[in-house]
Amino acid sequence: MKLLFPLLPALLAIAVLTSCDRTPPRPPIATANTNAVEKMFETRGVVRSVPEGGRTLVVRHDEIPGYMPKMTMELNVRNTNELRGLERHDEITFRLVATDDTHWIENIKCVGRVAPDDAPAALSQTNAPPSELGPGDLLPDYELLSEDGRKIRFSDFRGQAVAFTFIFTRCPLPDYCPRMGNNFSAARQLVLQAPNAPTNWQFLAISFDPEFDTPARLKNYGNLYRANNPDRWLFAVASSEALGDLAPRVDLLIARESGGSISHNLRTVVLDPRGHIHRQFDGNQWSPEALAESLLEAARTPTVAIPTPD
Question: For residue 259, what pLDDT is reported?
């Protein structure tokens, strides 16, 4: 098909408007318009990656005052057509919308490029990373600092089934750390209400932000989800050294970048009373009902081998 020459200027104009604007970046912006249903923030960031599937975008975004510090997150995209042409190191402006249970970004516009920087720093390890564990494997013992200032270990919970997940208190996106808190709250209520349920169980939320999440902060944060009822639900923080060994055991990915930005995925694990992995839940799509059922199953696991009849 022939392209008529008079259409060329118009097509060029469209191409300029839809391509990544390489002009110098404007000053940072972050404003909020909040009502009872949605919170909306106009902000900016740098593309870290464009995941396969075309529904999310990994962005190292600027601080959003009063809502979220600078961090690297995999953000849901409302209009996936806005991902076309985006590449790593593109600087973008966008609107972040958060509801009570999810979030998305929209109005994504490329405004420039930034110089390639170093890759995010993963948790340091002195040797080769430990191998990932699976169901039936014994979880090594790790020391944690609890919300009441005590040093605790996983071995302190022997004889109890333990459901633990990872959070950090500065994460406000509803389908990340807050969803873990809400799901734990609902699952605990289900276990408490289950008829003839065993009582040897424990919920444990572990922060991977030891520089910020002090015991006092963890206690205040935990009470938001526990309704000031800490019955069998403890918050604690792991040191960087402990996380360096624990994280790869359960495929937890944590990367810290300059400026305090943190990138992470979500992992939730159920241990049986012997400290062996009963089940692992990846991501945020699992339900409180599934967690409660798994915890009760694990709680009924015999703590010693049952002799085989002659």
Answer: 62
CATH 2.40.50.320 fits 27-113, yes or no: yes
Q: What is the mean pLDDT of residues 22-49?
A: 65
Q: Is the dihedral of CA 121, 218, 281, 104 positive or negative?
A: negative
Cα separation values, 95 from 84, 85, 176, 236, Å: 17, 18, 18, 33
Beta-carbon neighbour count of residue 23 at 10 Å? Answer: 8
- For 61-72, write each residue's pLDDT tens digit: 999 998 988 888
Q: CATH number of 121-299: 3.40.50.300, 3.40.30.10, 3.40.47.10, 3.30.360.10? A: 3.40.30.10
CB 171 within 8 A of CB 68: yes
How many angstroms separate the Cα of 20 from the Cα of each of 2, 17, 24, 227, 245?
28, 8, 12, 48, 41
- Supply 98's token pair: 């958060």
The CA-CA-CA angle for residues 259, 48, 262, to 5°, reads: 40
Q: What are the domain boundaries of the chain? A: 27-113, 121-299
The β-bridge relationship of strands 121-122 and 103-113 is unpaired
Global pTM? 0.78
- Close Cβ partners of 144 (under 8 Å, ≥ 6 residues apart): 151, 152, 153, 154, 206, 236, 237, 238, 242
